[in-house]
Design goal:
This protein is mainly α and 257 residues long. It contains 13 helices and no strands.
Amino acid sequence: MFRLFFIALMMCSFLVSCAGTKRTEEENAIKADLNLQIAMSYIKSGNYPLALKQLLIAEELNPKSEVVQVHLGFVYYLRESYELAEKHYQKALRLKPDFSEAKNLMARMYIDTNRYNQAEELLQQIIQDLTYQDFPKAYGHYGLLEFKRKKYSAAVPHLKKSLERDRENCETNVLLGRSYLEMDQLALAVPQLDKSIPFCMSLESDEAHYYSAIALYRAGQKSKSRFRFEELTKLFSNGKHYEKAQKMLEIIRKDSP
């Protein structure tokens, strides 16, 4: 009788302990989600150190969250800590093997670090996932991959596919124009890069201005090219292509009668 009572008591204690553990995990998951939301707001504002701090707290509270892991990977990627980024992307995929967003972000990191075969393997998996909603980004990354491989004709259909649903994407529009430019299809490059300008200006990027001016110059439209370079130097004094634009202006002015 005593033995049965003891067993019943132990089972009751175990169930209470399990219930308590489950309740704690649920509470921690809720707290972790709050830290995740705060981290996302910091990411949007470009405050990556504070975003990382919040994500590390969220990871401690809920180490089994693939969403926390993928955001950790993304912040480390933005800080160019690629080994740590890969570690957390892979952890996210161990927690959720069909997590296409993690695959997409990791593919972009592989492209940026010249690991093209690994990037292609992931992108092939993503494109076959018909439930993945952000497929324009995946096709955009595939286009970027082919562009960096200097396979410009192969890049074009991927970039066009991406733009069918994400028409105002600065990077994708410019890459399409640059692909035409690299293939010396100036009749296509000039209008494509010109169309890209407002999309890139909203991001304070001088990419479209610079390559538009280059395309115009190669097409023999030097006065329009000069105007575009001058516009770039006025609008983007701290831009990535500012110095190159200044040098091109010197060349155009010397060539002008």
